[in-house]
Amino acid sequence: MREQRPWGFILFKRNVDNPQQVSDLVRQLQDSIGRDDAPVLIDQEGGRVQRLGPPHWPVYPPGAVFGALYDADAEAGLTAARLSSRLIAADLADLGITVDCLPLADVPVDGADAVIGNRAYGTNPEKVIAIARAVTEGLEQGSVLPVLKHIPGHGRATADTHFRLPVVDTPRAELERTDFAAFRPLADLPMAMTAHVVFSAIDPAQPATTSATMIEQVIRGVIGFQGLLMSDDVSMNALAGSITDRTKAIFAAGCDVVLHCNGKLDEMREVAAETPVLAGEALSRAEKALAARTAPQAGFDRKAARAQLDELVRRAGEMSA
């Protein structure tokens, strides 16, 4: 780390034991590159995707719970989403973790792979937008930066990108009306993570992560996202070629940052060897993203917030029973 000086770090369940150990690890990682502002990321959504969990950290509901509440009472759904992410932010801030890979703006369809499933807030773009914004507000109020994922949309994928590459054959007009539309009002978020998904109507050869066409025309164009763009995990099997080839392709397509997640040191060296020094527009976007982090909002009562969230989740459970 000291030699390669990555822009930031991402933690997984394998890196987590107890609060003191995680706090120490975060500090050691930042110290290793001499930057106490180096972002430390984690995937802490709730539900199936939660790197911090019992016995040291509470369980949080999956996104679909907020969607179910929203259908019965829109304000209750938004309140629950905001409370959940505000509580998550408090957990992360205690540890020095500054970035959560959340919210999701993916809009699932019938027949899609379950990799998104109940992580999604719903199947209606307007509802997804509203809940994603509430989740973002909760994180920001707790001094944690959000990462919008999986841009420009993972909801139609018929395969889990951890294992193979999904191809979406939906016409462009329909994608712009649904999938892309869910991301457009969230384009002001500081960071976003790409989808390893081929959209054949726009680029039949490359997934969005390695497609200059998708990044220029759709992510930066149709959606209008101008923040820091990071790839989803470069080591996922949806991407073809060696880790070196994948890294080159990701940067050539227009991503600012490559995310490497499996912790294999030999692969990390290959990624580092092909990663340019952060400069120009990419550096500007990275600096702007970090500058978007604000101090935590005063007066937050964690115990009262948890009690309110638990009551809302209980109501959601009664509705689905």
What report would you give on this structure?
The chain is of the alpha/beta class and 321 residues long. It has 2 domains: 1-144, Glycoside hydrolase, family 3, N-terminal domain (TIM Barrel), CATH 3.20.20.300; 149-292, Glycoside hydrolase, family 3, N-terminal domain (TIM Barrel, Alpha-Beta Barrel), CATH 3.20.20. The protein has 11 helices and 11 strands. Helix 4 links the parallel strand 5 and strand 6. It starts with 8 loop residues before the first strand and ends with a helix. The mean pLDDT is 96.
How do you describe this structure in short?
By secondary structure, this protein is an alpha/beta fold. The chain folds into two domains: 1-144, Alpha-Beta Barrel (TIM Barrel); 149-292, Glycoside hydrolase, family 3, N-terminal domain (TIM Barrel), CATH 3.20.20.300. It is built from eleven helices and eleven strands.
What descriptive keywords fit this protein?
three-stranded parallel sheet; four-stranded parallel sheet; 9% strand; TIM Barrel; globular; 321 residues; alpha/beta; 2 domains; 11 helices
Q: Topology, please?
A:
Layout lengths: L8 E3 L7 H14 L7 E3 L1 E3 L2 E2 L12 H10 L1 H22 L3 E2 L24 H17 L3 E2 L1 E4 L15 E2 L3 H6 L1 H5 L7 E4 L3 E2 L12 H11 L5 E3 L12 H11 L11 H9 L6 H12 L10 H19 L1
Parallel strand pairs: 1-2, 2-5, 5-6, 7-9, 8-10, 9-11
Antiparallel strand pairs: 3-4
